[in-house]
Design goal:
The complex is a heterodimer of chains A (193) and B (293). Chain A has 193 residues and is an alpha+beta fold. Helices cover 19% and strands 23% of the residues of chain A. Chain A is built from 6 helices and 9 strands, in the order βαββαββαββααβαβ. The longest helix of chain B is centred in the C-terminal third of the chain and has 36 residues. Classes of the chains: A alpha+beta (193), B mainly alpha (293). At the A-B interface, helix 2, helix 3 and strand 6 of A face helix 5 of B.
Chain lengths: 193, 293
Amino acid sequence: MAKKYGMVIDLRKCVGCEACTVACKSENGVPLGNFRTWVQVHETGTFPHVGMHFVPKLCNHCDNPACVSVCPTGATFKRGEDGIVLINQDDCVGCKYCMVACPYGVRYLHESKGVVDKCTWCVHRVEEGVVPSCANTCIAGARIFGDLNDPESEISKFIAKNPVQVLKPEAGLGPNVYYVALDNAFNNGLGNR
Amino acid sequence: MPHATPWPVWIALYLYLAGVSGGAFAASVAASFLGPKYRNVARWGALLSPWPVLIGTGMLVMDLGSPLRFWMLLVKVNPRSVMSMGTFVISLFSLVAVLYCWHQLYTEKKVKFTLLPEPVLKLVQYLGIPLAVALGTYTGFLLNASRAITLWNNGVLPLIFLASALSTGVAAVIVAVAATGKWDVVKNEVVNLAIADAVLMGLEIFALAAYVWSLHVGNMAQQAALSFLNANYGLLFWGGVWAAGLLLPLAIKLFTKGESSGKAILNGTLVLAGGLMLRIIIVMAGQAATPLY
């Protein structure tokens, strides 16, 4: 069976230290001002009953990615063997259609290369059998990476025992980044959705 | 941290210019089918139609992250991508419009040869009309395909853009004919073309009303997007697109007595400005109204 890589981010453990943001940038040489992953801060409630929640963001490597269907040159593709959504930078012309099509806003234009770039789930690390840099560095172990198709993987076992949610399920793209305690960050009604 | 507006205002301008080209071409071919009494419309439509889309495509290419790789859009094809399909519509249309413009210059003896002998000319005319319609519609489908952006992901949008493309293209021809011809000579053509434009604007009003209504009675995201549109682009949308670009020219056409070149030029200019505002608002407000987190 083909692999299907996914990630769970346990927001109960995230303290918003941005170690993942920094580790990703240094691992992948992400340009100044651009991010492949970052920590979104959500403020909730009204004074004096207020809360502050952290929601790390990255490419969801969707089952049915909007970016792949709109890409005019087929530069963006979803890899059959493990479900990683990648960009063939030799074929990307930088039209940014994928950037307007992605509801998660996880893509950016790499100005000096003139192509669109995003999280690759550290494909160069994963192919060597180690987890992505963000998951590796997380001080709280909040990010769990693994094969969703393997019932014995850490991530599958975790999802079996814990309630998880995804961002923007109504977009119907089948995102593969799962969150624990996500609704805590969105309890403002319309809020930051 | 997502980029709030990946597509800058140049994209809106490009969508607009492509539509003007399509409308001007359609007006030219339709006029040539109606015979010599519409020869000025046929002439100016043919002379005008290639330029806006060529300029617009130039802007589009310059906005690419890698402008020198633009040719790859013609070589690498993704049939699921509206942009990939649209590339061929634009390319074919541009080719047809240039050949048609060249042929017009040939009939005026400004160039020595034509690439469109009689049977080919007919083919280009018949092929050009669906291409012009496809071009106007494509600009709407292009935005439609982004389900992330509520103001774009609306089924009426391609119809609005088609109606606007045809009406602005016709308006461009009206302005050109009225501004360059002797009024006594071109009056009949301009007045009748303005009636055709009014019909197109009527269709656009219906489509635009359906669009606004579908947002008004839509889901939470659609209502929020309409609120955003009203709050941030309300004056431009209701005062610019609706009042100045559609209702005012229609009112001038219907309720003022007498015809003059000044009136035709004023109305045509209002329609052209309204169409441009429409594209800018939809492209910019659409992106800005969508929280990317």
